[in-house]
Design goal:
389 residues; Growth Hormone, Chain: A; 17 helices; 83% helix; globular
Length: 389
Protein backbone atom coordinates (compact mmCIF):
# COMPACT_ATOMS: atom_id res chain seq x y z
CA UNK A 1 0.00 0.00 0.00
CA UNK A 2 2.84 2.41 0.90
CA UNK A 3 4.68 1.77 -2.36
CA UNK A 4 1.45 2.11 -4.37
CA UNK A 5 0.83 5.49 -2.74
CA UNK A 6 4.38 6.60 -3.60
CA UNK A 7 3.90 5.59 -7.25
CA UNK A 8 0.76 7.76 -7.27
CA UNK A 9 2.79 10.95 -6.66
CA UNK A 10 2.64 11.90 -10.33
CA UNK A 11 -1.07 11.26 -11.06
CA UNK A 12 -2.07 12.87 -7.76
CA UNK A 13 0.00 16.01 -8.35
CA UNK A 14 -1.51 16.39 -11.85
CA UNK A 15 -5.15 15.40 -11.36
CA UNK A 16 -5.68 17.10 -7.98
CA UNK A 17 -5.15 20.60 -9.32
CA UNK A 18 -6.80 20.27 -12.75
CA UNK A 19 -10.15 21.67 -11.48
CA UNK A 20 -8.26 24.73 -10.19
CA UNK A 21 -6.73 25.77 -13.53
CA UNK A 22 -9.41 28.40 -14.38
CA UNK A 23 -9.22 29.81 -10.85
CA UNK A 24 -5.42 30.01 -11.08
CA UNK A 25 -5.71 31.90 -14.36
CA UNK A 26 -8.06 34.41 -12.74
CA UNK A 27 -6.08 34.67 -9.52
CA UNK A 28 -2.76 35.32 -11.25
CA UNK A 29 -4.30 37.38 -14.10
CA UNK A 30 -2.75 35.03 -16.65
CA UNK A 31 -4.07 33.63 -19.96
CA UNK A 32 -5.50 30.12 -19.74
CA UNK A 33 -3.02 28.75 -22.30
CA UNK A 34 -0.10 30.00 -20.17
CA UNK A 35 -1.49 28.39 -17.02
CA UNK A 36 -1.95 25.14 -18.97
CA UNK A 37 1.81 25.15 -19.53
CA UNK A 38 2.16 24.19 -15.88
CA UNK A 39 0.80 20.75 -16.83
CA UNK A 40 3.28 20.30 -19.70
CA UNK A 41 6.17 21.59 -17.58
CA UNK A 42 5.25 19.19 -14.79
CA UNK A 43 5.31 16.20 -17.17
CA UNK A 44 8.70 17.29 -18.53
CA UNK A 45 10.18 17.75 -15.06
CA UNK A 46 8.71 14.45 -13.87
CA UNK A 47 10.37 12.57 -16.74
CA UNK A 48 13.73 14.31 -16.32
CA UNK A 49 13.68 13.71 -12.58
CA UNK A 50 13.11 9.99 -12.98
CA UNK A 51 16.00 9.70 -15.45
CA UNK A 52 18.24 11.39 -12.89
CA UNK A 53 17.19 9.34 -9.85
CA UNK A 54 17.49 5.88 -11.43
CA UNK A 55 21.30 5.64 -11.80
CA UNK A 56 21.85 7.69 -8.63
CA UNK A 57 19.84 5.17 -6.60
CA UNK A 58 21.68 2.22 -8.22
CA UNK A 59 24.90 3.81 -6.95
CA UNK A 60 23.92 5.19 -3.53
CA UNK A 61 20.80 3.24 -2.51
CA UNK A 62 17.05 3.84 -2.72
CA UNK A 63 16.16 5.31 0.66
CA UNK A 64 18.34 8.41 0.83
CA UNK A 65 17.59 9.36 -2.78
CA UNK A 66 13.84 8.92 -2.27
CA UNK A 67 13.90 11.04 0.90
CA UNK A 68 15.80 13.78 -0.92
CA UNK A 69 13.31 13.79 -3.79
CA UNK A 70 10.26 13.93 -1.51
CA UNK A 71 11.84 16.79 0.46
CA UNK A 72 12.32 18.70 -2.80
CA UNK A 73 8.65 18.03 -3.63
CA UNK A 74 7.61 19.48 -0.25
CA UNK A 75 9.66 22.67 -0.68
CA UNK A 76 8.38 23.18 -4.23
CA UNK A 77 4.76 22.60 -3.12
CA UNK A 78 5.20 25.44 -0.62
CA UNK A 79 6.58 27.62 -3.43
CA UNK A 80 3.53 26.76 -5.59
CA UNK A 81 1.19 27.68 -2.76
CA UNK A 82 2.88 31.09 -2.29
CA UNK A 83 3.35 31.91 -6.00
CA UNK A 84 2.25 35.43 -6.98
CA UNK A 85 2.99 35.23 -10.72
CA UNK A 86 2.30 32.56 -13.29
CA UNK A 87 6.02 32.42 -14.14
CA UNK A 88 6.96 31.58 -10.55
CA UNK A 89 4.18 28.97 -10.42
CA UNK A 90 5.42 27.26 -13.58
CA UNK A 91 8.99 27.22 -12.25
CA UNK A 92 7.84 25.82 -8.91
CA UNK A 93 5.78 23.15 -10.70
CA UNK A 94 8.87 22.07 -12.63
CA UNK A 95 10.86 21.69 -9.40
CA UNK A 96 7.91 19.94 -7.76
CA UNK A 97 7.89 17.44 -10.62
CA UNK A 98 11.64 16.85 -10.30
CA UNK A 99 11.11 15.90 -6.65
CA UNK A 100 7.98 13.82 -7.20
CA UNK A 101 9.73 11.67 -9.79
CA UNK A 102 11.89 10.12 -7.05
CA UNK A 103 9.01 8.49 -5.19
CA UNK A 104 7.31 7.27 -8.34
CA UNK A 105 10.27 5.54 -9.96
CA UNK A 106 12.13 4.33 -6.86
CA UNK A 107 9.03 2.66 -5.39
CA UNK A 108 9.14 0.36 -8.44
CA UNK A 109 12.87 -0.26 -8.00
CA UNK A 110 12.28 -1.18 -4.34
CA UNK A 111 9.86 -3.91 -5.47
CA UNK A 112 12.54 -5.35 -7.78
CA UNK A 113 15.08 -5.26 -4.92
CA UNK A 114 12.84 -7.23 -2.57
CA UNK A 115 10.97 -9.74 -4.77
CA UNK A 116 11.95 -12.25 -7.50
CA UNK A 117 10.91 -11.23 -11.04
CA UNK A 118 7.46 -12.82 -11.42
CA UNK A 119 6.43 -11.91 -7.89
CA UNK A 120 7.73 -8.38 -8.55
CA UNK A 121 5.46 -8.13 -11.61
CA UNK A 122 2.51 -9.25 -9.49
CA UNK A 123 3.33 -6.64 -6.83
CA UNK A 124 3.72 -3.95 -9.51
CA UNK A 125 0.22 -4.78 -10.75
CA UNK A 126 -1.17 -4.46 -7.23
CA UNK A 127 0.62 -1.11 -6.86
CA UNK A 128 -0.86 0.05 -10.16
CA UNK A 129 -4.32 -0.78 -8.81
CA UNK A 130 -3.71 1.74 -6.01
CA UNK A 131 -2.39 4.25 -8.55
CA UNK A 132 -5.49 3.83 -10.74
CA UNK A 133 -7.62 5.18 -7.89
CA UNK A 134 -5.90 8.60 -8.12
CA UNK A 135 -7.63 9.70 -11.38
CA UNK A 136 -10.96 8.67 -9.82
CA UNK A 137 -10.67 10.57 -6.54
CA UNK A 138 -8.16 13.37 -7.18
CA UNK A 139 -10.36 15.63 -9.37
CA UNK A 140 -13.24 15.27 -6.90
CA UNK A 141 -10.99 16.10 -3.94
CA UNK A 142 -9.48 18.97 -5.94
CA UNK A 143 -12.95 20.41 -6.55
CA UNK A 144 -13.75 20.25 -2.82
CA UNK A 145 -10.46 21.94 -1.92
CA UNK A 146 -11.03 24.62 -4.55
CA UNK A 147 -14.52 25.39 -3.24
CA UNK A 148 -13.45 25.53 0.40
CA UNK A 149 -9.87 26.86 0.35
CA UNK A 150 -9.29 28.31 -3.10
CA UNK A 151 -6.62 27.21 -5.58
CA UNK A 152 -3.81 27.66 -3.07
CA UNK A 153 -5.49 25.05 -0.89
CA UNK A 154 -4.79 22.47 -3.60
CA UNK A 155 -1.06 23.00 -3.23
CA UNK A 156 -1.40 23.05 0.56
CA UNK A 157 -2.88 19.54 0.29
CA UNK A 158 0.06 18.42 -1.88
CA UNK A 159 2.43 19.94 0.70
CA UNK A 160 0.78 17.94 3.49
CA UNK A 161 0.83 14.80 1.35
CA UNK A 162 4.55 15.27 0.76
CA UNK A 163 5.25 15.79 4.48
CA UNK A 164 3.22 12.70 5.37
CA UNK A 165 5.07 10.60 2.77
CA UNK A 166 8.42 11.93 3.98
CA UNK A 167 7.65 10.85 7.55
CA UNK A 168 6.35 7.42 6.52
CA UNK A 169 9.36 6.66 4.32
CA UNK A 170 11.73 7.87 7.06
CA UNK A 171 10.08 5.68 9.70
CA UNK A 172 8.98 2.56 7.84
CA UNK A 173 10.93 2.07 4.59
CA UNK A 174 14.35 0.47 5.14
CA UNK A 175 17.14 0.49 2.59
CA UNK A 176 16.42 -2.33 0.11
CA UNK A 177 19.63 -2.18 -1.94
CA UNK A 178 22.55 -3.28 0.26
CA UNK A 179 26.01 -1.91 -0.45
CA UNK A 180 27.30 -5.16 -1.98
CA UNK A 181 24.55 -5.09 -4.63
CA UNK A 182 25.06 -1.48 -5.66
CA UNK A 183 26.75 -0.47 -8.89
CA UNK A 184 30.36 0.55 -8.46
CA UNK A 185 30.77 2.48 -11.70
CA UNK A 186 31.40 6.25 -11.64
CA UNK A 187 28.20 8.24 -12.11
CA UNK A 188 29.08 9.24 -15.68
CA UNK A 189 29.30 5.58 -16.66
CA UNK A 190 26.20 4.76 -14.61
CA UNK A 191 24.19 7.21 -16.72
CA UNK A 192 25.68 5.64 -19.86
CA UNK A 193 23.54 2.55 -19.13
CA UNK A 194 20.67 4.41 -20.78
CA UNK A 195 22.48 4.18 -24.10
CA UNK A 196 23.05 0.47 -23.59
CA UNK A 197 19.36 -0.03 -22.84
CA UNK A 198 18.25 1.86 -25.93
CA UNK A 199 20.57 -0.22 -28.14
CA UNK A 200 19.35 -3.54 -26.70
CA UNK A 201 16.56 -4.99 -28.92
CA UNK A 202 14.93 -6.70 -25.94
CA UNK A 203 14.89 -3.53 -23.85
CA UNK A 204 13.69 -1.46 -26.81
CA UNK A 205 10.85 -3.93 -27.43
CA UNK A 206 9.73 -3.66 -23.79
CA UNK A 207 9.98 0.14 -23.84
CA UNK A 208 7.88 0.44 -26.99
CA UNK A 209 5.33 -2.21 -26.06
CA UNK A 210 4.52 -0.52 -22.77
CA UNK A 211 5.31 3.06 -23.76
CA UNK A 212 3.20 3.22 -26.91
CA UNK A 213 0.20 1.78 -25.06
CA UNK A 214 0.61 4.60 -22.53
CA UNK A 215 0.92 7.08 -25.42
CA UNK A 216 -2.42 5.89 -26.81
CA UNK A 217 -3.99 6.63 -23.43
CA UNK A 218 -2.50 10.15 -23.45
CA UNK A 219 -4.00 10.73 -26.90
CA UNK A 220 -7.37 9.78 -25.41
CA UNK A 221 -6.89 12.07 -22.40
CA UNK A 222 -5.97 15.00 -24.64
CA UNK A 223 -8.77 14.68 -27.19
CA UNK A 224 -11.63 13.06 -25.30
CA UNK A 225 -13.08 16.24 -23.67
CA UNK A 226 -13.53 17.81 -27.13
CA UNK A 227 -14.71 14.54 -28.68
CA UNK A 228 -17.35 13.66 -26.10
CA UNK A 229 -18.47 17.06 -24.75
CA UNK A 230 -18.35 19.20 -27.91
CA UNK A 231 -18.99 16.60 -30.62
CA UNK A 232 -21.06 13.93 -28.87
CA UNK A 233 -22.95 16.34 -26.60
CA UNK A 234 -22.00 14.77 -23.26
CA UNK A 235 -22.54 16.82 -20.13
CA UNK A 236 -19.31 17.41 -18.16
CA UNK A 237 -20.61 15.16 -15.36
CA UNK A 238 -21.33 12.36 -17.87
CA UNK A 239 -17.87 12.75 -19.35
CA UNK A 240 -16.38 12.50 -15.85
CA UNK A 241 -18.25 9.24 -15.32
CA UNK A 242 -16.93 7.90 -18.63
CA UNK A 243 -13.38 8.89 -17.62
CA UNK A 244 -13.80 7.08 -14.31
CA UNK A 245 -15.01 3.95 -16.13
CA UNK A 246 -11.73 3.74 -18.03
CA UNK A 247 -9.78 4.10 -14.79
CA UNK A 248 -11.79 1.18 -13.41
CA UNK A 249 -10.80 -0.79 -16.53
CA UNK A 250 -7.12 -0.21 -15.73
CA UNK A 251 -7.79 -1.34 -12.16
CA UNK A 252 -9.44 -4.57 -13.35
CA UNK A 253 -6.66 -5.31 -15.87
CA UNK A 254 -4.01 -4.93 -13.16
CA UNK A 255 -6.00 -7.20 -10.85
CA UNK A 256 -6.26 -9.89 -13.52
CA UNK A 257 -2.57 -9.58 -14.26
CA UNK A 258 -1.67 -10.01 -10.59
CA UNK A 259 -3.66 -13.27 -10.54
CA UNK A 260 -2.60 -14.70 -13.91
CA UNK A 261 0.99 -13.65 -14.55
CA UNK A 262 2.59 -16.49 -12.59
CA UNK A 263 0.68 -19.18 -14.47
CA UNK A 264 0.54 -17.51 -17.89
CA UNK A 265 3.89 -15.73 -18.07
CA UNK A 266 4.72 -12.07 -18.56
CA UNK A 267 5.46 -12.31 -22.31
CA UNK A 268 2.05 -13.86 -23.02
CA UNK A 269 0.33 -11.19 -20.93
CA UNK A 270 2.15 -8.51 -22.92
CA UNK A 271 1.00 -10.20 -26.14
CA UNK A 272 -2.58 -10.33 -24.89
CA UNK A 273 -2.55 -6.68 -23.84
CA UNK A 274 -1.07 -5.34 -27.08
CA UNK A 275 -3.41 -7.48 -29.22
CA UNK A 276 -6.57 -6.46 -27.36
CA UNK A 277 -5.45 -2.82 -27.37
CA UNK A 278 -4.95 -2.89 -31.15
CA UNK A 279 -8.32 -4.60 -31.61
CA UNK A 280 -9.91 -1.83 -29.56
CA UNK A 281 -8.24 0.78 -31.78
CA UNK A 282 -9.59 -0.96 -34.90
CA UNK A 283 -13.09 -0.90 -33.39
CA UNK A 284 -12.63 2.79 -32.64
CA UNK A 285 -11.47 3.45 -36.20
CA UNK A 286 -14.38 1.62 -37.83
CA UNK A 287 -17.00 3.15 -35.51
CA UNK A 288 -15.79 6.70 -36.17
CA UNK A 289 -16.83 6.39 -39.82
CA UNK A 290 -20.40 5.22 -39.27
CA UNK A 291 -23.43 6.98 -37.88
CA UNK A 292 -24.64 5.93 -34.42
CA UNK A 293 -21.23 4.39 -33.76
CA UNK A 294 -20.70 6.11 -30.41
CA UNK A 295 -21.29 3.00 -28.22
CA UNK A 296 -18.64 1.12 -30.21
CA UNK A 297 -16.28 4.10 -29.89
CA UNK A 298 -16.70 3.94 -26.11
CA UNK A 299 -16.03 0.17 -26.09
CA UNK A 300 -12.96 0.57 -28.28
CA UNK A 301 -11.53 3.30 -26.05
CA UNK A 302 -12.24 1.22 -22.95
CA UNK A 303 -10.21 -1.67 -24.40
CA UNK A 304 -7.33 0.60 -25.45
CA UNK A 305 -7.04 2.37 -22.11
CA UNK A 306 -7.62 -0.72 -19.94
CA UNK A 307 -4.79 -2.65 -21.58
CA UNK A 308 -2.22 -0.26 -20.15
CA UNK A 309 -2.89 -2.20 -16.96
CA UNK A 310 -1.65 -5.42 -18.55
CA UNK A 311 1.32 -3.95 -20.38
CA UNK A 312 2.84 -1.57 -17.82
CA UNK A 313 3.67 -3.90 -14.94
CA UNK A 314 4.83 -6.76 -17.18
CA UNK A 315 7.08 -4.63 -19.38
CA UNK A 316 8.79 -2.77 -16.53
CA UNK A 317 9.08 -5.96 -14.48
CA UNK A 318 10.81 -7.84 -17.31
CA UNK A 319 13.05 -4.87 -18.06
CA UNK A 320 14.27 -4.66 -14.44
CA UNK A 321 14.76 -8.44 -14.37
CA UNK A 322 16.81 -8.18 -17.59
CA UNK A 323 19.07 -5.54 -15.98
CA UNK A 324 19.16 -6.50 -12.28
CA UNK A 325 22.29 -4.44 -11.53
CA UNK A 326 20.67 -1.36 -13.09
CA UNK A 327 17.09 -1.83 -11.93
CA UNK A 328 16.75 1.81 -10.89
CA UNK A 329 17.95 3.08 -14.26
CA UNK A 330 15.72 0.56 -16.08
CA UNK A 331 12.64 1.63 -14.09
CA UNK A 332 13.50 5.30 -14.66
CA UNK A 333 13.95 4.91 -18.42
CA UNK A 334 10.73 2.93 -18.78
CA UNK A 335 8.61 5.38 -16.78
CA UNK A 336 10.19 8.42 -18.42
CA UNK A 337 9.64 6.90 -21.86
CA UNK A 338 5.96 6.41 -21.01
CA UNK A 339 5.55 10.08 -20.21
CA UNK A 340 7.79 11.18 -23.10
CA UNK A 341 5.86 9.15 -25.66
CA UNK A 342 2.62 10.28 -24.03
CA UNK A 343 3.61 13.93 -24.49
CA UNK A 344 4.39 13.29 -28.16
CA UNK A 345 1.05 11.56 -28.71
CA UNK A 346 -0.71 14.45 -27.01
CA UNK A 347 1.13 16.93 -29.24
CA UNK A 348 0.27 14.88 -32.34
CA UNK A 349 -3.45 14.97 -31.49
CA UNK A 350 -3.29 18.74 -31.13
CA UNK A 351 -1.20 19.21 -34.29
CA UNK A 352 -3.48 17.08 -36.49
CA UNK A 353 -6.67 18.37 -34.87
CA UNK A 354 -9.72 18.27 -37.15
CA UNK A 355 -13.40 19.07 -36.55
CA UNK A 356 -14.45 15.42 -36.83
CA UNK A 357 -12.26 14.37 -33.90
CA UNK A 358 -10.57 11.69 -35.99
CA UNK A 359 -7.06 12.90 -35.12
CA UNK A 360 -7.50 11.05 -31.81
CA UNK A 361 -8.52 7.91 -33.71
CA UNK A 362 -5.50 7.93 -36.03
CA UNK A 363 -2.98 8.65 -33.27
CA UNK A 364 -4.41 5.88 -31.07
CA UNK A 365 -4.35 3.44 -34.00
CA UNK A 366 -0.71 4.30 -34.76
CA UNK A 367 0.30 3.94 -31.09
CA UNK A 368 -1.40 0.56 -30.57
CA UNK A 369 -0.06 -0.74 -33.88
CA UNK A 370 3.47 0.20 -32.81
CA UNK A 371 2.93 -1.46 -29.42
CA UNK A 372 1.77 -4.69 -31.10
CA UNK A 373 4.67 -4.62 -33.60
CA UNK A 374 7.16 -4.16 -30.76
CA UNK A 375 5.56 -7.08 -28.93
CA UNK A 376 5.90 -9.33 -31.99
CA UNK A 377 9.56 -8.34 -32.34
CA UNK A 378 10.02 -8.93 -28.62
CA UNK A 379 8.76 -12.49 -28.98
CA UNK A 380 11.44 -13.07 -31.63
CA UNK A 381 14.03 -11.81 -29.15
CA UNK A 382 12.56 -13.82 -26.27
CA UNK A 383 15.62 -16.04 -26.03
CA UNK A 384 17.59 -12.96 -24.98
CA UNK A 385 15.39 -12.40 -21.95
CA UNK A 386 16.51 -13.78 -18.64
CA UNK A 387 13.75 -16.20 -17.62
CA UNK A 388 11.82 -14.70 -14.68
CA UNK A 389 11.28 -17.03 -11.82
Amino acid sequence: MLLGALVAFGPLAIDLYLPALPAIARGLSAPAEVVQLSVTVFLAGFSLGMLFYGPISDRYGRRVVMLGGILLFVVASLACMLANTVESLILARFVQALGGGAASVLARAVVRDVYPPLEAIRKLSLMAMVTAIAPLLAPLLGSVLLASLGWRGTFAALLLWGLFSLCVVWLYLPETLPTERRGQLPLAQAFAVYGRLLLDPVALGLLLSGGMSFAAMFAYITASPFYFIDLAGFLPASYGLLFATNAIGIFIANYLNSRLVKSTGAIRMIGLGSTVGFAGALLLCLASFVSHGLPVVIIGLFLVVSMTGLLGANCIGLLMAHYPQNAGAAAALFTASQFGLGMQASAAVSYFHDPSGRSMVWVILACTATSLTACLLLRRQQAGLKPPG
